Amino acid sequence: MRSDNRAGLVPALAACALLLGSCSTLDKFNPFSRPSGPKPAELPQISGERAVRVLWSASVGSADRYVFSPAVAGEAVYAASRDGTVARFMAADGRQAWRTSLDTRLSAGAGAGGTTVAVANAEGEVIALDAKTGAERWRARVSSEVLASPAVAAGLVIVRSVDSRVFAFGEEDGKRRWVYQRAAASLMIRTPAGIATDVDTAYAGFSGGRLAAINLSNGAVRWEAVVANPRGATELERVTDVVGTPAVQGREVCAAAYQGRIACFEAESGRPVWAFEFSSLTGVSVDARYAYASDDRGAVQALDRSSGRAVWKQDRLRLRQLTQPQALGEAVAVGDFEGYVHFLARDSGAFVARYGTGSSAIRATPVPLAPAANAVLVQSQNGGLFALGL
Q: Which residue segment(s) compose the domain that 253 sits in?
């Protein structure tokens, strides 16, 4: 394994605001609101700035204090909002195919497969809709609040609840197929921790810096690996949760932990490939050459995917509460708390373009619209949905 410089820790009070467990003011505090402490970095000037193309835009509805990410499946885009709205748009032009309003307030974005769209709420209710018509198919229950979009794969709807359980339901009938459970920590980061899938395996991160590979057919553990081990003298310092959604690329799966590391493993065996000291609140993404992540102080870093070697670091967006970066052809897109989407050169991290959505904060990771489109989808906290390309 390889390790490098450790990122600095966020102040204790800010960390408390992000935690589930012992922080009594959690429900009243939005950790992604406009910073009131040290001043975030001013927007840097961009020399030779490229124009950002707005392929289309739409409105879905407010996310409130939750994170709602859009989902792309085939030729369609699915998006949801806090008030129970779920909508389907055509990926090519943003034309709305259907919109439905559920009789519940949702707490996570949409997950989608070829025929099914799934959403969930803070009471642990999972709702599946027909992808073509928006008609409700079934409802099921998990054990606690859901903060991350469900995954739809291999005939299953897979949901991770905040009490460290992963549930799988039949895509057609909603019957529970299996449950995977880990002991929940007393303190956990209140941020979406999603499920990634490949042909026959689901990958999920947990508190204590653990990553699990779960057999999709029966919920059995294929392997467990350590992304990062807890360190520090206090309970707060020892919070080391895997955050975001694990990133699967080729034969590897990568994950990032708060106050921990970015680490990549062989997807088949869980054997460690490399690790890099890092602290993230949003997770890691990968492409054919690099792994990308935003640290908890607002720097974006690219690492060589084969070795974990640092390739570049862009630190001129300090304290701007960045999303997880997303590769976009020869650029990398990352959103911030003022609704800007920054485009960085994939090979150097230099600024190449910027787009102001004129909207609220962007907390959800930009989502690739389609490989051939060279575009990303961005959903803002007030419900703006933007398809952007370079």
A: 1-21+191-314
